[in-house]
Amino acid sequence: MADINRVLGVRDAGSETFELSEGAVEQTAVAGQDELYCLLVENSDTNTAGVIIKAGDGIRSSIGDLLVTVAQNERKIINLDSSRFKMLSGDNAGKFVIQIKNEAGTGAFGGTITNVKLAAIQL
After folding, report:
1. What is the pTM assigned to this prediction?
2. Residues 9, 78: contact at Cβ < 8 Å?
3. What's the maximum distance between 2 C-alpha atoms anywhere in the chain?
4. Do residues 76 and 107 touch, judged by C-beta distance below 8 A?
5. CA 2: distance to chain centroid?
6. How far is CA 62 from CA 19, 26, 88, in A?
7. How far is Cα 37 from Cα 20, in angstroms, rounded to an integer?
8. Pairing of strands 116-122, 21-22
């Protein structure tokens, strides 16, 4: 499972230039210690994407997964709350797990999944 490109936000300056990662059925983003993170999602496909942030195993994980729909030519920013979404144990310890599915989040994405682009931004 590939990691999504991580971008470091810089106080009182702009970030480095960065590339968005191509979407995949499931991928991860490094979560760090307790830094603030958000996920930038851009969809250039004609199909609406259901982006699922999987619940981790931390203190707020009982709230469950988060499904955010991103329609054609939309860009969205999703706050990644580490107490809800960060995996603390297992193969993905220290990471967020992101899936791209159909609009309802129940089946496979119907379009070209690499048309959905993502970046994890550490604030």
Report:
1. 0.94
2. no
3. 42
4. no
5. 12
6. 33, 21, 14
7. 15
8. antiparallel
CA–CA dist 53, 80 (Å, integer): 8
The token pair at 120 is 């994890």
Residue whose pair of structure tokens reads 């936000």 in the numeric block: 9
Q: Which fold has domain 6-122?
A: Hypothetical Protein Tm1070; Chain: A (2.60.290)
Question: 19: which 2 tokens?
Answer: 């590339």
Compute the distance between CA of residue 123 and CA of residue 32 in angstroms, rounded to an integer. Answer: 11
Beta-sheet pairing, 95-101 with 49-53: antiparallel
Cβ-count burial 98-111 (b if 16+ within 10 Å, e if not): bbbbbbebeeebeb
Residues with pLDDT less than 50, the chain: none
DSSP 46: S
Tell me the pLDDT tens digit for each residue of 89-121. 999 999 999 999 999 999 999 999 999 999 999
Three-state DSSP class for residue 17: coil
Q: Are 96 and 1 in contact (CB under 8 A)?
A: no
- pLDDT in the model for residue 69: 98
